[in-house]
Amino acid sequence: MTHALIVRRDLDFMLHDWLRMETLFEDPAFAHHSRESVDALLDLSETLAADLFLPHYKAADASEPRIEDGRVFTLPAIKTALDQCADLGLFAAGFREDLGGLGLPYLACSASFTFFAAANIATAAYPMLTTANARLIATFATSAQVEIFALPQIAERWFGTMCLSEPQAGSNLADVRTRAVLDGEDDLGARYRLAGNKMWISGGDQDISENIVHLVLAKIPEDDGVLPEGTGGLSLFIVPKILPDGRRNDVSVAGLNHKMGYRGTANCLLNFGEGEGAIGWRIGEPGRGLQQMFLMMNEARIGVGLGAAALGYRGYRQALVYARERLQGQRPGRSGSVAIIEHPDVRHMLLTQKTYAEGALALCLYCAKLVDQPHDPDAAALLELLTPVAKTWPSEYGLAANDLAIQIHGGYGYTRDFDVEQLYRDNRLNPIHEGTTGIQALDLLGRKIMRADGRSLAALERRMNETRERAADTTDLSQAADALGAAWARVKQAIERIRALPQDAQLIHATAFLRGFGHVVTAWLWLDQAAAAASGGTDAFRTGKIIACRYFFEIELPKAEHWLTSAASPSDFLAAMAEDRF
Questions:
Q1: Does residue 407 register a pLDDT over 50?
Q2: CA 473 – CA 461 distance, rounded (Å)
Q3: For residue 3, what pLDDT is reported?
């Protein structure tokens, strides 16, 4: 049984009918591109994902990376797939031409990535991290550092990682204890010796690329040898596995993490400096590491959301095919067994999956277009506001779509004979890594709203109002336009009520706020897509978009009111539930 990874018409609709990608080609940075060049990229991506990534999807899950004599070995098919993509320069397409890329919009590259993520998320993780690593170096590092460490990654000969977490620190980067001691200066800048441990490092070691470039957050000791407290003391260092002179750096693999899913991605505990210290070169000024790393973190967060959307989407398409083919039960007025898609409960689940998967994909692609508009103040403000939503909403609801895919398959979905159980296991990581749901909620409500000047919320409101005006002229969407206005009013009311709470109580229910806010944002994007669909015809595809929008507004959007009310609640039940009362 074969299934589409991403239905091409869905992607074309989102890119062209809805997001109007062609407007990006008016920017001099993208003027040498056209719809034809983007279509060629997507054609190639679709083919390579199906031919190179999909065939080893289950094999990479069954044959996890292993350590032998301190080296990590992966399934050979992973290297074969990534080498062929490197030969075509596929994952470097979004870099400027002077860096070896094609200068394509980030939106086009994100659309390309969805095919690979849907086919094999674990294999796709290697180039996702590598491109983000290289982009950070190209943005903040010296020209010598870019030449030595970024260009080989853009050429896809070397891979990259991000080394933030530590066994004792987890997500609390203020507790990082990896130290970097000055060791002189050379043509690559200030050189340091690093010592410490880094945990949960995806791609931390492997046998796929010629070299690995680690971007490591560490602290430079004060004059008295004591590490500075807090995140302000973090600096960022380039620490390659193999040094420019060909020597092996003092970086070793202490162990592999054996995961529920994403098994083809080697996830490592790394030790830096077991000997004389791992050699690394500082990027930029001391103490600027976290600010620099946010560029990579935010790109990775959108990438995680996009991967989660792709996994949810593939699960939806597999459930849809199964529901059309599986005969079981009867329906009034019909003789014999019917396909289970005829049953209302199954149809309900499929519609829920559709709104989750396609809504998540729309959210991520919308944010990808914002990345391509750095000179537009509204776009920049919206991107900052929506990044935690783009990471979290697809991770939570792409996973929910995968859960429903198993349910639709029934007992078969719980077996390894069908892909849907692996899709669920793979997607279960996405609400956790690159910042858990709770951390994204604190970022959204605390930093992006409570401590912000309100410009990003005002920009979002303007865009929602533009959507409502377009939708109000469409009979099937006018009620949804009114409902969106009411939902946004509840968001603003919740924010004002939260501001009125004591400061130490404002973020207690931040996750409830994120869920409510995310549902309102996704409702807006569904309405915006439906308005675009309504303006282009009445075929089954476009009508399906409009009905899915109506479903989301009638079934899903009402949930936001509860979450937003909870977010602004002064209830003290959390504080009252002392540890010994659990």
A1: yes
A2: 19
A3: 58
Per DSSP, what are the bridge partners of residue 217? 236
Of the pLDDT bands very low, low, confident and very high (cuts 50, 70, 90), residue 1 is very low
Rounded to 5 degrees, what are φ and ψ at 516?
-65, -45
| Rounded alpha-carbon distances, angstroms, from residue 396 to 223, 311, 356, 412, 419 | 46, 12, 9, 23, 19
The overall pTM is greater than 0.90: yes
Q: For 339-349, what is each residue's pLDDT tens digit?
A: 999 999 999 99
The 8 Å CB, 24+ separation contacts for 167-176 are 167/197, 167/199, 167/269, 171/435, 171/436, 171/439, 173/217, 173/231, 173/234, 173/290, 174/229, 174/230, 174/231, 176/217, 176/218, 176/219, 176/234
Measured between alpha carbons, how far is 183 from 519 in angstroms, rounded to an integer? Answer: 51
Paired tokens of 487: 């939902």
- Of residues 80, 277, 301, 287, the one with CA closest to residue 191: 277
CA distance 363 to 191: 41
pLDDT mean over 82-103:
94
Q: Which residues contact 51 (CB under 8 A, 6 or more apart)?
A: none
Q: How many CB atoms lie within 10 A of CB 163?
A: 28
Contact 72, 266 (CB under 8 A): yes
Q: 237 — phi, psi (to 5°)?
A: -130, 145
Rounded distance between C-alpha atoms, residue 233 and residue 443, angstroms: 20
